Amino acid sequence: MAAAQIDGVETVLAEKLEGVSLDEVKRILYGRPYKTLDISPAAEKLAQDGDFQLTGYLVDAQKEQTRAPRLVRVAAIQNRIHRPTTDSVVEQRDAIHQRVGAMIEAAAAAGANVIGLQEAWTMPFAFCTRERLPWTEFAESVYTGPTTQFLSKLAVKHDIVIISPILERDEEKDDVIWNTAVVISHTGRVIGRSRKNHIPRVGDFNESTYYMESTLGHPVFETKYGRIGINICYGRHHPQNWMMYALNGAEIIFNPSATVGTLSEPLWGIEARNAAIANHVFTVGINRVGTETFPNEFTSGNGQPAHKDFGHFYGSSYIAAPDGSRTPSLSRVREGVLIAELDLNLCRQCKDAWGFRMTNRLDMYAQKLTEVSNPEYRPDIRREQ
Question: Coiled-coil ranges per the record (predicted)?
Answer without folding.
Answer: none
